[in-house]
Design brief:
This protein is mainly beta. The protein has 2 domains: about 15-30 and about 205-330, Carbohydrate binding type-21 domain (Immunoglobulin-like); about 55-205, Immunoglobulin-like (Sandwich). It has helices at about 55-60, 65-70, and strands at about 75, 80-95, 95-110, 120-125, 135-140, 140-145, 150-160, 165-180, 185-195, 200-205, 210, 220-225, 225-235, 245-250, 255-260, 270-280, 280-295, 300-310, 315-320, 330.
Length: about 325
């Protein structure tokens, strides 16, 4: 985690510190649009499947987070996720509501001439909050573009009580084999895109990743003494080297201020991990900012941005908690 000045933000850290892993802009006087791209698209059917096979099971049991990362080669020319996915709710009943979310993840792969199509597969390895073992989902072919690349869609079905966020890497078995001299066996050639080791997130909405978290201490006053008090947030632990910041104003966005991670007032600081914690790893964190803005004001308005994806070769992205596009507003109880 980086400490930043109020005007700035922030596979290097150990495997076991990294898991759980796309953009928004603040609109003056209004707020940013939600960051996670939940594009509308065609409705597809399908369901994720568990990792199968003794080799995959052995990798999982040996604490390796993804068999694709361990077995394959990182190559975004051969397989690439362009940060586009969409969702739908399924399993909807008359009385029970909807029990499932279904994510559809769009991937692009480069076909290999002469490959055995029976051995060709495309998919993702994903992880849900509170679950240590990753799972595998396979996709289906959609179309071929003029430049030769293929588009595939990977459906991942998640029960609603398992949460509304997942992280994943993309993998591609291109239908060819190679002899692994070290292992003494023939293996399928596998490529993967894992965002430089930081993985990719998918969520039902930005609130799944960062949101205001109400605590007994979380009270803020606005008035002649300025802005004083505490704000707490629940943040998905997508990256160890995450950046968290508040953009705020006390004069209706005539001036804009930024507060990042650091020590002292008006800076974000980590408080503690949130449940569940499995094998020392936690999927969510409690972050706090203690506000001490002395200038008198009638109105304090703010939004929160969470940036991640800082590994070499990763695509940086950001998520906004902006009260559904309206920003958060706190006003003085009495005009002055």
């Amino acid at each position: 985690m980086k400490e930043n000045e109020t005007s700035s933000f922030g596979e290097a850290v150990e495997w076991m510190m990294r898991r759980f892993r796309s953009s928004g802009e603040l609109v003056r006087g209004a707020a940013a649009a939600g960051a996670i791209v939940l594009a509308s698209g065609q409705v597809l059917s399908g369901c994720a499947t568990e990792v199968v096979g003794a080799a995959e099971a052995e990798l999982i049991n040996s604490n390796i987070r993804s068999w694709a990362q361990e077995r394959g080669t990182r190559n975004t020319h051969m397989v690439r996720y362009d940060q586009k996915y969409w969702t739908q709710v399924t399993g909807c009943g008359f009385r029970g509501g909807c029990t499932d979310y279904e994510f559809f993840i769009q991937l692009f792969v480069q076909p290999v001439p002469g490959a055995n199509l029976d051995d060709k597969k495309v998919g993702v390895v994903y992880r849900l909050p509170g679950y240590r073992a990753p799972q595998t989902a396979t996709g289906h072919y959609v179309r071929t573009y003029d430049d030769g690349r293929e588009e595939w869609h990977v459906p991942v079905r998640v029960r609603s009580w398992d949460g509304s966020i997942l992280t994943f890497d993309a993998w591609y078995e291109d239908g060819t084999w190679y002899y692994d001299g070290a292992a003494g066996e023939w293996r399928k050639r596998t490529w993967f895109d894992d965002n430089g080791g930081d993985l990719y997130p998918a969520a039902i909405g930005p609130w799944s990743i960062v949101s205001r978290w109400w605590t007994p201490e979380g009270q803020v006053t606005v008035g002649q003494d300025g802005v004083q008090g505490i704000l707490d947030f629940r943040v998905a632990n997508l990256d160890w080297d995450k950046e968290l910041a508040m953009v705020w104003t006390t004069d209706g966005w005539q001036t804009t201020n930024w507060s990042g991670i650091g020590s002292g007032p008006n800076q974000f600081r980590f408080v503690n991990p949130l449940e569940p914690v499995i094998d020392g790893q936690h999927d969510f964190e409690h972050w706090r900012i203690e506000l001490d803005i002395p200038e008198p004001t009638q109105r304090f308005e703010y939004a929160i941005v969470y940036r991640h994806g800082f590994a070499e070769g990763a695509t940086q992205s950001e998520v906004w908690d902006n009260n559904g596009g309206r920003n958060y507003v706190l006003e003085a109880e009495q005009p002055f």
